[in-house]
Structure formats: structure tokens, C-alpha cells
Design goal:
- It contains two helices and 21 strands.
- The longest helix is centred in the N-terminal third of the chain and has 16 residues, at 7-22.
- The radius of gyration is 21 Å and the shape is globular.
- A hairpin with a 2-residue loop joins strand 15 (173-179) and strand 16.
- It has two domains: 28-119; 129-269, no CATH class.
- It has a six-stranded antiparallel beta sheet, with no helix packed on it. The protein has a four-stranded antiparallel beta sheet with strand order 2-3-4-7, with no helix packed on it.
- It has helices spanning 7-22, 123-127; strands spanning 31-37, 41-42, 49-52, 60-64, 71-72, 75-76, 79-83, 94-95, 100-106, 113-119, 128-133, 141-148, 154-155, 169-170, 173-179, 182-187, 189-190, 197-201, 215-217, 226-230, 264-269.
- By secondary structure, the chain is mostly beta strands.
């Protein structure tokens, strides 16, 4: 059968999937704490004492009694157990209650680990109303040139909560296009597996009609030296949903001076006000 769905219909489906993901038990609204662990310590909101794993092991150690109700891989912890991080082939699954769960995350070079706490009944989920977004506009689908860079080229990426720390990312190519009579040369880095890239960008709408920090786009380079930037699919970063995320901010070359009136705008509560 011929697919008769319009780009606007496809965008509506995309936004509906985004809303469903936002309120899921491991969606961005469920994250209530991210705590890095560099010594034996409690973690806010959950039971147990958490500590770095010994040298040679990846992840964290949790010490708890059976009465604490901490479960790792469906086994009640009664003593000290290794919790493997999400950088492993098979990460550990941690559960504290019917609604609270946890994941251990590694820093960029897997030298330290932290605990993320997820609440399927978080205040953010209960207050959530919608993800405000612009209507679909074909003019915001831009075909740009993708110019490969030399092997080993990197882009300096900084994060919202620790701007002094550089987290360089591989830069496979530059994205060149003109918009509103202005030439742009943007930098995007690989996003997971495959050819998809992550573009962290800012524009003149930030802090006005859209989230102040910026937005993300996930384009894939074509085989013909081009890359399509569909700004209608620009999404809010996780930190727009929860303060427990530390999101990358747009590097200087990705801060457009023109307004990109496309994509997601802000996270709103049930009354239509900004969620945070």
C-alpha cells in the first residue's frame, strides 16, 4: 500500500512518541537524582551505602541489609554487592521499591561512576502537561553540505553544570549551509552506533520562545556529500525535563543568530506554565 501520511502527520507521530517517552519509568521526567560516588557514602533518596568498586572492577559497590529492600538483578542485597555500570555489555538492574530504580553510569573515560535514581511516580511526571512545539513547516527542512574532516579531528564540547571541563568529541565532518542570507558551518559528533550524528545547537529563539540552553538534532549524512537538517524534529535536551541531567551546550560555532522557529519549544505543566 502507498503511504499517504503527510510530513505533518509523521511529525505528530514523532511528538506523540516523545511525550510517551518523557513520562515512562526511565524517561527524562523520571530522573530525580544523579550522584557521583568517590567514597563510601549514602545516596539521596535511596537505601544502602555506595562506594567505588576496587581497582580492576567497573561500577559501584552497594552495602545494605535485607531489611533495606535493595535488589540487584532481582536478588535482595544482604551484605556488599557489585553493581555493574551501564557501559558494560550487561549492566546491573537496581530496584529500591515499586517505583524507584537505579542505574550506575560511567564518566567519559570510565574512571569513575555515579548512581542515577529514577522514580516512575516523580513530581515531574505527575505535573507534566505537554511538550510545546512549533507546527510543521517545510521551509525548515534544509539540505546542507557535509564536508568530511581529517581522521582524529575533534570538537570541544562543554556541559551545563561544569563549563570548565572539556569533553572533546570526534568530529567526522562539517555541516555547511546558508540560512536567512547567513552562511553557517556547524559541528556534530557521533550519536551511538551507526552513522547518525548529534547536533547541539542554539538559535535566536532560546530564552524567548524555546528552552534557554539550546536543542538537539540527530541528522544522518547521505552518500552524496549532503546532510538533511529537518529542524521540525529538533528536540529539547534531557535537562529541560530534569535538573538531574548535565547536558552538553552548543559550541560557539553552533550558535545561530537567526531564529529557528521549528521543533520542540519547552516542557509545560498541566496549567501550561514552564515545568521548571
Amino acid at each position: 500500500m502507498t503511504d499517504t501520511r503527510s510530513p505533518a502527520d509523521e511529525l505528530a507521530r514523532f511528538h506523540e512518541a516523545r511525550r510517551a517517552r518523557a513520562v515512562s519509568p526511565r524517561g527524562p521526567l523520571a530522573l530525580v537524582n544523579t550522584q557521583w560516588v568517590d567514597s563510601a557514602q549514602p545516596v539521596w533518596g535511596v537505601a544502602g551505602t555506595w562506594a567505588p568498586a576496587p581497582d580492576g572492577l567497573a561500577g559501584l559497590l552497594v552495602t545494605a541489609t535485607a531489611a533495606d529492600g535493595v535488589r540487584v538483578d532481582d536478588e535482595v542485597v544482604d551484605g556488599t554487592v557489585l553493581v555493574v555500570g551501564d557501559d558494560a555489555v550487561t549492566p546491573s538492574a537496581v530496584r529500591f521499591s515499586d517505583t524507584l530504580s537505579g542505574t550506575v553510569i560511567a564518566n567519559d573515560d570510565s574512571t569513575s561512576w555515579g548512581l542515577r535514581v529514577w522514580d516512575a511516580d516523580s513530581e515531574g511526571i505527575r505535573r507534566f502537561g505537554s511538550i510545546d512545539s512549533f507546527e510543521h513547516e517545510p521551509a525548515w527542512v534544509v539540505t546542507a553540505d557535509f564536508v568530511p574532516t581529517e581522521a582524529g579531528t575533534e570538537v570541544d564540547i562543554r556541559h551545563q553544570a561544569d563549563l570548565d571541563l572539556s569533553r572533546p568529541k570526534p568530529l567526522p565532518g562539517l555541516i555547511r549551509f546558508s540560512l536567512g542570507g547567513v552562511d553557517h558551518e556547524l559541528a556534530a559528533f557521533p550519536s551511538g552506533s551507526g552513522e547518525r550524528l548529534q547536533l547541539v545547537f542554539g538559535d535566536a529563539t532560546n530564552g524567548e520562545s524555546t528552552y534557554s540552553v539550546g536543542r538537539f538534532l540527530f541528522p544522518t549524512p547521505g552518500d552524496d556529500g549532503t546532510i538533511v537538517l529537518d529542524f521540525n524534529q529538533a528536540v529539547l535536551p534531557p535537562c529541560a525535563f530534569s535538573y538531574a541531567f548535565n547536558c552538553p551546550i552548543p559550541p560557539p560555532q553552533n550558535r545561530l543568530t537567526v531564529p529557528i522557529e521549528a521543533g520542540e519549544k519547552n516542557v509545560l505543566d498541566r496549567d501550561g506554565a514552564l515545568l521548571h
